[in-house]
Design brief:
mainly alpha, 8 helices
């Protein structure tokens, strides 16, 4: 399972050459293609994951471009930032938007009782006016919910990435110690 994930990530992760060839990134290539932004380090990996989730949820288009450009100032890993923007895809976007509407409505406490009636009640509102009021209210609620979901998921992904990096490093060091101990025990 782990190997399949790494193979999938390797296939879908953009390479430096692909990014250099992208016409939108070419003007910023000197910043985005710096070698330290492409290394997998304990600081750049969590930043890349968090940035990718934040951009992937908030930005509706050109997510990889924005993730790559924002990676430079915060020194995040560009390939991981670009890869984690795929959290939003045609299958997950409707669920994220429904959750965003629910979260936004819950936090802003917007329901049917909070809809304000017009000042002049003598004028009858049309169905179109009511639909537009609902739509504009729904988009603001959804936008607020998207920001909340993006910030919370980016924060959690940062913490999980830091913990996973430390766990993997500790496991690697434990294996090295075990091998050294086995070599010492086997050597007379």
């Amino acid at each position: 399972m782990k190997r399949r994930f790494f193979n999938w990530a390797q296939r879908n992760m953009p390479t430096r050459e692909q990014m250099a060839g992208n016409r939108f990134i070419r003007p910023f290539a000197h910043r985005v293609l710096r070698s330290e932004l492409w290394r997998f380090t304990r600081r750049s990996v969590p930043r890349g994951v968090a940035l990718g989730l934040l951009v992937g949820i908030i930005v509706p288009f050109a997510q990889i471009l924005f993730a790559a450009l924002l990676s430079a100032p915060i020194k995040a890993n560009v390939p991981l930032a670009a890869l984690t923007t795929f959290i939003t895809n045609p299958f997950t976007t409707p669920a994220i938007w429904v959750a965003a509407y629910w979260v936004g409505g819950l936090l802003l406490r917007i329901d049917a009782a909070t809809i304000v009636a017009p000042v002049n009640t003598a004028i009858e509102r049309t169905d179109l006016q009511r639909a537009l009021e609902w739509l504009t209210g729904a988009t603001l609620v959804t936008a607020f919910g998207l920001v909340v979901i993006a910030v919370v998921s980016a924060s959690l992904s940062y913490l999980i990435s830091v913990w996973t990096w430390r766990w993997m490093t500790a496991r690697k060091w434990a294996r090295r110690r075990a091998r050294r101990a086995a070599l010492r025990a086997a050597t007379p």
